[in-house]
Amino acid sequence: MAADYSKLLEGIRPNRLMLAAGDVVMRAGDKVAAIYAVETGRVALSRHGSVVHVADPGTLFGESGLFGETNPVDAVAMGPAVVLAYAQAQVLLHLRAHPDLNLAFSAYLARRLNAARARIELGKLRGAQDRVVAFLTQAGAAEGWIKLGQPLSHIAADIGLTHEAFYRTLRKLVDAGLLERQGRRGFWLKGDHA
Fold first, then answer.
1. Do 111 and 130 fall into the same domain?
2. Which residue among 116, 137, 160 closes a domain?
3. pTM for this one?
4. What CATH number is given to the structural domain containing 96?
5. pLDDT tens for the 194 residues of the chain, in order
6. Where in this chain does the record put each Cyclic nucleotide-binding domain (predicted)?
7. How many CA atoms are closer than 13 Å to the CA of 83, on its beta-carbon side?
8. Dihedral in degrees, nearest 10, Cα atoms 164, 170, 176, 181
9. Per the structure, how many domains does the chain have?
């Protein structure tokens, strides 16, 4: 499946960066060179040593660099990774030349912003069950079957739970008849989740 952003940047040739664990993609305060897309692996974005986001395969990072002069965060490969670097000047020229793509890119960024806001609110919930149910609801599992696109251990970390607490909560929801599963990543929330 193609990444959500891929059609928007079609026609721009990225540089492919082959990274090992600990390799730096960009440093906070350095001049912006590009926006980046994770092809494989994961990249941790941090500010003053604290991780603020983890970019997974199929996602962009460094988008704010299109509108700034210096990088706001450090970006470091968490393990082996392949990252595509789209030169800032080329992306801006491409978006200026194609107003329809510019509008679509704005819509992409708005969806990412809404998802980030939802994750922040999810992180404010206290109980593991509340977080898991809220996450699955945001992902669409209350409306029908969904298939999650990333490992459950990554999701657990994203919502601020240990993987053990996340798996235990999933089991509890299944045992209570509130959640059905298909394979490792298929879910459907049912009934009252309180």
1. no
2. 116
3. 0.74
4. 2.60.120.10
5. 345 678 888 889 999 999 999 999 999 999 999 999 999 999 999 999 888 888 989 889 999 888 889 999 999 999 999 999 999 999 999 999 999 988 988 888 888 888 878 887 887 888 899 999 988 988 889 999 999 888 888 888 888 888 899 999 999 999 999 999 988 888 999 866 54
6. 1-75
7. 29
8. -140
9. 2
